Amino acid sequence: MLRNSPTRYGLISVFFHWSMALLLVGLFAMGLWMVELNYYDNWYHQAPGLHKSLGLLVIFMWFVRLLWRLFDRLPEPEANSPAWQQRIAKAMHQLFYVLIFLLVFAGYMISTGEDAGIEFFGMFEVPAIFSAFEEQADVAGWIHWALSWLLMICVLLHTSAALQHHFILRDRTLLKMLGRKG
Amino acid sequence: MAMKKLLATGLIATASLCFSNTAMSADYVIDTKGAHASIQFRVKHLGYSWLVGRFNKFEGQFSYDADAPEKTTIEVKIDPASIDSNHAERDKHLRGDDFLDVRKYRASKFVGTGLEVMSDGKMVLTGDFTLHGHTNPIQLQVSEIGEGQDPWGGYRHGFTAFTVINTSDYGFKSILSPVSRQIELFLNIEGVRQ
Questions:
Q1: In terms of C-beta density within 10 A (0-12 exposed, 13-18 middle, 19 or more buried), how is residue A5 classed?
Q2: Mean predicted lDDT score pLDDT of chain A
Q3: Nearest-Cα residue of chain B relative to residue A37
Q4: Would you call B104 exposed, middle or buried from its count of C-beta atoms within 10 A (0-12, 13-18, 19+)?
Q5: Residue A181 confidence (pLDDT)
Q6: Distance CA B51, CA B44 (A)
Q7: Pairing between β-strand B58-64 and β-strand A118-120 as defined by DSSP bridges
Q8: Beta strands in A21-165 (DSSP E)
Q9: Given an 8 Å threshold on Cβ–Cβ distance, is A116 in contact with B87?
Q10: Which H or E element spans position B79?
Q11: How near does any CA of chain B get to the CA of A139, in Å?
Q12: What count of other Cβ atoms lies within 10 Å of the Cβ of residue A42?
């Protein structure tokens, strides 16, 4: 039930997949919205604070999820899909791990550009490690922005592929990630 | 032979130029290397307190003669990208196009055109200040702090200067409320005589 089986993802994988999907898309929208806020807006300080806490949550989940992935087995791909598609799908899954890590890291580099740490929901602070150069926040900000768009493009491709499997090929690809048994 | 002669004439001319300069006034280089100089600013935050920051990178030189202060010249070049208010996200915002737009306006400078000693002994320095691509004449209140030999074989002369500028004169967007549109600038400069 908790672990993956050959025919479906287990509850732990399902939880990580959908909660991180929600977080990442939500953080993207929040990021676009919050940078346009007026200085005197109620959310001017709260939104970036929440964005940073949720970003840290993403990277904590990323780490646990990666460990879990190394311990758990993966379900079998659909037999009807060609090998090249399976390779692309697998590459995309790996790219997600890389992109999410770099995205959070770039965000971390913005806020910690001048030695200040980042608070996690007021519970503790992740300290600054790299305060490398004067315009670090600007460079990191640009990379954070570019990676977030790249990630969303990948999410779009990944979602399109899943929907294609579900509605056009009518196989169990999407159902497996919903934890449905075969 | 002609080359040698030219070189000699040049050397003499240069030497006499230096000589006449030191005789009339002293040339100083602002000691930014030793960080015995600073450019600070302060802006009211919401009207409730002062936010203080500084420009970390600048350089300049001045020429000053106590007997002829009106002949004072000064030039200070400031790197606006070096703005530092001790907060990464705020400094990123200040460097961006809402404020200094440092990618577009790479240089800021102050060129002094005259120093006037008032009847009460206070000094007023007039000059042109360039910031955010806009140049305006400004006046700074100047105080002499001190001068003399330093322990390392040099001679130093220090001043402090103060002025207030309006963000609207320099083409900044009015995204902050009117209480935060005046910027006070404080310059502390220590010149090392050349």
A1: middle
A2: 95
A3: B175
A4: exposed
A5: 77
A6: 6
A7: unpaired
A8: 118-120, 124-126
A9: yes
A10: none
A11: 9
A12: 9
Query: Across the strands, what pairs with B162?
Result: B141, B186
Cα dist from A162 to A5, A151, A155, whole Å: 19, 16, 10
Expressed in angstroms, the distance from the first to the final Cα of chain A is: 13
- Note the pLDDT tens digit of each residue in A107-134: 999 999 998 999 999 999 999 998 878 8
Q: Is A55 exposed, middle or buried (0-12, 13-18, 19+ CB in 10 A)?
A: buried
Tokens coding A56: 């840290």
Determine phi and psi for B146, rounding to 5 degrees. 175, 170
Helices (H), B38-122: 88-95
CB-CB under 8 Å, B88 with A110: yes
Distance CA B159, CA B141 (A): 10
Whether B71 contacts B63, CB under 8 Å: yes
Condensed to tens digits (0 to 9), the pLDDT of residues B38-75 reads 999 999 999 999 999 999 999 999 999 988 988 999 99
Q: Where are the alpha helices (DSSP H) in A11-42?
A: 11-34
A interface mutation test: which of B45, B46, B54, B89 has the most A CBs within 10 A? B89
Who's near B115: CB < 8 A, 6+ residues apart? B64, B69, B70, B72, B123, B124, B125, B126, B142
In this structure, the dihedral spanned by the alpha carbons of residues B42, B43, B47 and B51, taken in order and rounded to 10 degrees, is -60
Strand partners for B135 = B130
Query: What SS3 state is found at B45?
Result: strand
Calculate mean pLDDT across residues A52-67.
98
- Give the three-class secondary structure for B108: strand
Query: Hunting for tokens 């604070």 — which residue is that?
Result: A49
Where b means 16+ CB within 10 Å and e means fewer, A123-159 reads eeeeebeeeeebbbbbbbbebbbebbeebeeebeebe
Residue A84: exposure state from Cβ atoms within 10 A (0-12, 13-18, ≥19):
exposed
Nearest-Cα distance to chain B for A172, in Å, is: 46
Give me the amino acid identity at B156.
R
Residue A86 has pLDDT above 60, yes or no: yes
